[in-house]
Backbone:
């Protein structure tokens, strides 16, 4: 099978600062200011062409960070990502300019993707129709609700027909009717054999849509495999997580952080 995505030992480190002054000191002075925060640690997985992979994990597990790295929005700190084809990220407000109108955002995004003005003119009506934004298409995006931004981003991405589609919680905002229409479009892409990554807290949608699951915990891969194998394990974990007290959850996170530190020690 042809590989669509290969992620090899990817780590993403950010710096957390207590103040703007500390950030400036870190840039100008030799001392090491700020605290290191690792959003991802030594993450590896492969996707075959046509795979539909769900990213599961509690908040802060690194799902969106990994999605953004695969989409080329942010760079990895270490490791390597290989993507075979054009990837499009669908997330609320991803790549949209607030001061521009919806129509201007369509034109700008399509131009940046290499489409000619003639091609954009041919696609524009389809994008606007799918978005269901009506007269709002000529209003500044900064005036849009999160659901409207998601509609516009989704409409652009599905119309330009990318090789790899990355959907990050884009169906969790807005009305149910549009979410259902968008989900139907994703199922159509699945039938066409497109490679997709789906980030969502909806286990029901994961069961319906995904072939494989990447389970992330504290920025590390906890498990990766067939959806039928991983989802029941994750559901069991979530049930236990919901029953934990605040103290128990903190203990669990601290244990995960210790595993992360141990892994970083091995890598370094």
Residues:
């Amino acid at each position: 099978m042809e590989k669509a995505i290969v992620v090899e030992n990817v780590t993403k480190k950010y710096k957390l600062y207590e103040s703007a002054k500390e950030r400036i000191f870190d840039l100008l002075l030799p001392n090491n200011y700020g605290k290191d925060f690792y959003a991802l640690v030594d993450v590896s997985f492969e996707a075959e062409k046509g795979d539909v992979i769900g990213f599961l994990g509690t908040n802060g597990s690194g799902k969106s960070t990994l999605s953004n790295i695969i989409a080329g929005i942010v760079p990895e700190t270490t490791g390597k990502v290989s993507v075979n084809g054009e990837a499009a990220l669908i997330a609320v407000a991803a790549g949209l300019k607030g001061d521009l109108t919806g129509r201007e955002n369509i034109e700008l995004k399509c131009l940046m993707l290499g489409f000619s003005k003639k091609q954009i003119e041919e696609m524009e009506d389809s994008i606007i129709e799918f978005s269901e934004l009506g007269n709002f298409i000529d209003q500044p995006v900064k005036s849009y609700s999160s659901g409207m931004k998601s509609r516009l981003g989704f409409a652009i991405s599905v119309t330009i027909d990318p090789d790899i589609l990355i959907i990050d919680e884009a169906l969790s905002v807005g009305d149910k009717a549009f979410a259902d229409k968008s989900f139907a479009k994703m199922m159509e892409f699945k039938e066409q054999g497109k490679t997709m990554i789906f980030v969502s807290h909806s286990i029901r949608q994961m069961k319906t849509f995904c072939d494989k699951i990447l389970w992330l915990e504290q920025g590390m891969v906890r498990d990766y495999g067939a959806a039928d194998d991983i989802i029941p394990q994750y559901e069991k974990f979530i049930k236990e997580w919901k029953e934990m007290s605040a103290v128990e959850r903190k203990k669990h996170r601290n244990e995960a952080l210790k595993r992360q530190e141990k892994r970083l020690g091995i890598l370094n």
